[in-house]
Specification:
The chain is an all-alpha fold and 271 residues long. It has a domain of 148 residues. The chain is 66% helix and 2% strand. A hairpin with an 8-residue loop joins strand 1 and strand 2.
Amino acid sequence: MAESITTLCQTGNLEAAYRQACASLAERPDSQFAQTDMFTVVLTCLKKYGGQADVGSTARWVRKLAALQLPGVVWRDEQLCWEMHNLLRVLFKRPYPPHAEIAELLLSLVGLPLVAVSSVGRSRLLQAALKFREQLPAAWWDWWNLELLRPEDFVKESYTPAGTGKAIRLPALAESAYGSYTKSLLKRLTAGASSARDAIAAAEALIPKMEALAADHADYSWLGYHRAKLLVALGDTAAALPTLLQIVRQKSTEYWACVAAAGRNAAVHRC
């Protein structure tokens, strides 16, 4: 009698488990049991290679899972998000993280059809991924979907450094995410005609969301700046300049923003 996929995974015979899961899924592609068996194999592989911090192998198994396009299931999605979160946290602690491989891993996730629901695991994945914001592909933002931020993600946290006795407030996850998304759009808006065309609609849709967010969270101090930079990139300098001037007055080291906004040296004298 053939061993079950669960047993094969538990004993580390992952190649046999994968072959058996592939055969079962090919025979019954709509079976939830066959889909779950395949996910079990892939998750076991992700745990194995993630535990070894083997980014390339982890990305390869994520791509295999994405290629199958299994329907999203909340509990499976949550497990996957936590595994990716754990790996990214380990990689961030390295003195020299493998940024090229991390970019490959983050891109591989975009192909996964997750259920569009908020969850702790999804938020933790975003939190970990933002540590590598320079490696996040443009498609990541649509895939993760900032509309799925939880109420808790909008709350600032704080910590007290040892020996200081003074608490420091940290940006909320939502604040960091919207700031990083804005920077991603700005790069695309200035990267070239084809990239800019794709980003214009996204930027125009984001601006009113940022305005609403700023109205609800006055303590998101840099949100207005990010919004103003988007307006400048879209050509609406007049609407952006008042916000940039206010920030320039508050942050003397950011005087260059005034020049970028006005597009002429005379702006410096008005700062």
